[in-house]
Amino acid sequence: MKKSLHNFLKFTNFELERLSKFLFALMGITFIANLVGYIYTPMKYMGKINEYIAQNSATSEQAIQQYGPFSFYNALNSFWIVGPIALGISGFIFYSFFIWYREWFGKNTFAYRLLMLPIHRMTLFYSKLVVVFIGIFTLISTQMISLFIGYPIVSAIIENTYYVNQSLMEAVQLHPLFLYLFPLDLGFFLTINAVGLVVLLVLFTAILMERSYAVKGIVLGIIYAVVALTLVLLPLFLPDLLNNHYILYGSELIIIEAILLVIVAVLSLFTSRHLINKKITV
Amino acid sequence: MNVTFNKRDPIYLQVMQYFKRLIVSGELNLGDEMPSRRQLANQLKINPNTVQRAYSEMEEQRLIYTEPNRPSRVTEDPAVLNQLKKEWLDQAVSKFVSALDPIDIPLDDIVDLIKDKMNMRKKDD
Amino acid sequence: MIELKNVHKHFGRKKVLDGISFTANKGEITCLVGVNGVGKTTILNAIMNLTPIKKGEITIDGELMRPDLYNKVAFIPDVAIMLPNMTVHEAMDFMKDYYVSWNCKRAKEITRFFRLNLTEKISELSKGNQAKVNLLMGLALDVDYILMDEPFSGIDIFTREQITDVFSSRLVEDRGVLITTHEIFDIEHLIDKVVLLDNGVIYKEFNAEEMRETEGKSVVDVMREAYNR
Q1: CB contact under 8 A, C209 and B45
Q2: How do residues C164-216 score in pLDDT, each as one tens digit?
Q3: Domain locations in chain C as residue ranges
Q4: pLDDT exceeding 90 applies to what percent of chain A?
Q5: What are phi and psi of C4, to 5 degrees?
Q6: Do C123 and A107 lie within an 8 Å CB cutoff?
Q7: B114-121 long-range contacts, Cβ below 8 Å, gap at least 24?
Q8: A88 burial class (0-12, 13-18, 19+ CB within 10 angstroms)?
Q9: Are C97 and A10 in contact (CB under 8 A)?
Q10: B and A adjacent (3 or more CB pairs under 8 angstroms)
């Protein structure tokens, strides 16, 4: 047991090192793009305001009427902030595939070595899973830290007259994207992550199916993913489908969802264990 | 040490033949240490099990002997050496004679030819 | 003893192994030779549980393959299997981290024997040296059995000589070696046992030295017979 844990930590550390370049690149892009956003977006706004005032010899009130006041939310809702988040999300979707396929494709077939390590093969599976999550959380933290840095920058650039004094929390809560990323509402945050974890488990299982049965495995994997997803999402749409909105109470729905998530997770883990131990091919 | 083995005769016999030659010619003296099995296998680039087989056979023929935990040695019994030389000569002559079979030639002529050849070889040395 | 019992394997409709049974013993060098068709590499992969078999059983000293047995059996495939951006040194450290059977002293000995530069990245090595790194990763493990897949393929003659030397050197010692090759000439004098495969079945299994002794045939002679059937 102790040995397994040791192996898990060792291998996770190894996988983290392999992730680091990719992660640092995403973190760097996030920071730089955000920084540009914190400076460029308010500067552009101030530029427009000043131009309006100069051209129309208007007062600042008239300018506000024309362009509206500026809050930190305006800075957040820009390409410079949303862009890197979208990049991060697609980056980690890509990485969830890449973390497996890089062992087979590429210059050297590292899969041989990994599958021949004298450790339980599920250790590889758990490590890869944890590493994807660590990567995602690291990137989310980066985004959070960046907001703290950006907040004073934006307020410094925007003149008081035009600035809507909004707390950082208020600005963040206004933006739907952050509701999904940040632990603003603990229950919701946990749900999102539980769903994320199950989706990743299903994806890993589908990948192992493809690695075990080739073309047949792709079909199998897609079917498995669709069935699993349907199972998990069905209760959410059940009221609409049955045209009966009173069929389930909110609390019942949550319990049913939780049970379904656990079922799909356990099923995926058992399937994956069987595949990686008995069916996988180098 | 360099031996070219042919691929059709058992390697262990070829190894034995090689050592017999060394012993008969005096390159290996009575009581000399034999190379270790592993070392020999490596030098001749053959399987250690084959060397083992050759050594066992040579032990059986009393050409070499092995005391526990010590390297094998060439026999110290002069009678074995004499016997080996006799065998060697016998084999060589048999081969020679059978090679002459197709040609009809008087024995005296052959003896003269042999004398000439042997003198030539001595001069070359 | 590595034992295969009635092993079957298909690739789609194609039968690759159709009831293969043989043993590879400790202290012997067993050579898997193919008359035609594939299957040799598949056998090694199957022994290492790197590909599933459809039917049959493979045991190592009577046990089915499980993770800790990778400390007992090493496999040297004919593709590079360490990460290309690792240096030779890093690759050795990686092995040391996971295998209790990794023998540092032996590893050092092998790097000297092969004249490998430890600080060089694997991707920057020549093909021959990459093959040597592969060998290093397998030979430095204190295992009972070593499996090698085509150790001579695409390698220059000098490297080839060095690899041949491995077979009769202390690096192999009393282990059981199972090797696949189609270049039998290099090692004809080194092998104990030959398993001749033909279209997924075993055409002949024999001891090379016994074959020379009783029938006066070389390994290549027997292969030729199989070809010309």
Answers
A1: no
A2: 888 877 777 789 999 998 888 878 888 999 999 988 899 999 999 999 999 99
A3: 2-228
A4: 69
A5: -105, 130
A6: yes
A7: none
A8: buried
A9: yes
A10: no
pLDDT tens for residues C142-172? 999 999 999 888 788 888 888 888 887 777 7
CATH number of C2-228: 3.40.50.300
Structure token digits, residue A68: 């509206």
Strand partners, A132: none
| Residues pairing with C145 in the sheet | C73, C176
Q: Name the token pair of C66.
A: 């499980």
Q: Give this complex's ipTM.
A: 0.94
B34 and B61 inside one domain: yes
Interface contact flag, C29 B38, Cβ < 8 Å: no
Query: Is the C-alpha dihedral spanning A91, A93, A96, A97 positive or negative?
Result: negative
Q: Which residue segment(s) compose the domain that B87 sits in?
A: 79-124
CB C96 within 8 A of CB C88: no
The strands making up C14-24's β-sheet, listed across from edge to edge, are C14-24, C2-11, C55-60
pLDDT per position as a tens digit, B8-54: 899 999 999 999 999 999 899 898 999 988 888 888 888 888 999 99
Residue contact B12–C209, C-beta within 8 A: yes
Residues B70 and B18 both lie in one domain: yes
Choosing among A9, A18, A108, which should be mutated to test the C contact, i.e. which has the most C CBs within 10 A?
A: A108
How far apart are the C-alpha atoms of C27 and C173, rounded to whole Å? 7
What is the C-alpha to C-alpha distance for residues C116 and C133, in angstroms, rounded to an integer? Answer: 8
**Cα–chain-centroid distance for residue C212?**
24
> Do B16 and B68 belong to one domain?
yes
Buried b (16+ CB within 10 A) or exposed e, B8-38: eebbbbbbbebbbebbeeeebeeeeebbebb
Choose the final residue of a domain: B76, B94, B112: B76
Task: Indicate if B40 and B63 belong to the same structural domain.
Answer: yes
Contact: B49, C221; criterion CB under 8 Å: no
Asked if C189's CB is within 8 angstroms of B47's CB, the reply is: yes
- Give the minimum alpha-carbon distance from C41 to chain A in angstroms, rounded to a whole number: 11
Hey, which bits of chain C come out as E strands?
Answer: 2-11, 14-24, 29-34, 55-60, 73-76, 145-149, 176-180, 193-198, 201-207
Q: For testing the chain B interface, which of C209, C217, C223, C225 should be mutated: the one with the most B CBs within 10 Å?
A: C209
- Angstroms from C227 CA to nearest CA on chain A: 31
Q: Looking at residue C37, what is its pLDDT?
A: 65
Q: Provide the chain C residues 4-43 that lie in CB contact (below 8 A) with chain B.
A: 27-29
Whole-angstrom Cα distance, residue A214 to residue B40? 49
pLDDT of residue C103: 95
